[in-house]
Amino acid sequence: MRLLLVEDDNHVAAALSAVLARHGFDVTHARSGEEALQALVPEGAGFGVVLLDLGLPDQDGYEVCGKIRKRTGTPVIMVTARSDVRSRIHGLNLGADDYVVKPYDTGELLARIHAVSRRTPHVDDTGDTRTALRLGPVRIELPTRQVSVDGTAVALTRKEFDLLALLAQRPGVVFRREQIISEVWRTSWEGTGRTLEVHVASLRSKLHMPALIETVRGVGYRLVAPAG
User: Fold this and answer.
1) Between 7 and 73, where is the model more confident?
2) What are the 4-aspartylphosphate sites (modified residues) in this protein (predicted)?
């Protein structure tokens, strides 16, 4: 997922960007409100989430949030030290999707990012909103969570669908095991690795396409788009 981090403190931005990158995010850093607004042209520029710090040098963060909301439906999470209820309500009324108060737990922040992105239709790197993914004979309907192969419906569990949809969004790209666990199970790697392996095996079996999901030894998995 592409993420726009709006933060004027370079040290904070560098540390947070490193954490987000380890969890599979492609982070773009904007140091001011104007940089953020330019980065979102045209129509959100394919970003999945905007992480907006309110303490910006050129514009009030609330003002920036309002401008973002007029330009795009990309989810916005406000990050601020202002913890009073009135500030939160003001931010939400301006169109923010969530509000995180400093200091925050990184795990909570990641969970909130995933939560707001799940409530939003997938946006690809060109800014196009997609409701279905087509990979050869495999069709994945994102809004209805239905999967079919050559027109025949395949019953998947919730986590099987989430795993397949994640890999299918970027065919050929290797997703690290830690990244998959974070996005699909919303937890850390410890104790969940075997669960991931079982779900991959189940998908290969149910879809009758053992070569669809390739294991990249020591790294993770990638989806190999079939022909046709």
Assistant:
1) 7
2) 53
Which has the minimum average pLDDT: 96-100, 189-193, 205-209, 224-228? 189-193
Backbone angles phi, psi at 155, to 5 degrees: -80, 120
N-to-C CA span, the chain: 27
d(CA 56, CA 6): 8
Contacts of residues 110-118 at CB distance under 8 Å and 24 or more positions apart, as own/partner, are: 110/23, 110/182, 110/186, 111/186, 112/77, 113/3, 113/25, 113/49, 113/51, 113/77, 114/182, 114/183, 114/186, 116/49, 116/75, 116/77, 117/1, 117/48, 117/49, 117/75
Query: Which strand ranges, in their side-by-side order, compose the sheet holding 213-216?
Result: 175-176, 220-223, 213-216
Which value, to the nearest 10 degrees, does the dihedral of the CA atoms of residues 155, 158, 161, 166 take? 180
Quickly tell me which residue has 């996005």 as its tokens: 183
In sequence order, what are the beta bridge partners of 152?
149
- The tokens of 155 are what? 């019953």
List the Cα angle 87/107/64 in 5-degree steps: 35
CA distance 218 to 228: 30
0.90 exceeded by pTM: no
Measured between alpha carbons, how far is 121 from 66 in angstroms, rounded to an integer?
21
- Residues 177 and 213: beta-carbon distance below 8 Å: no
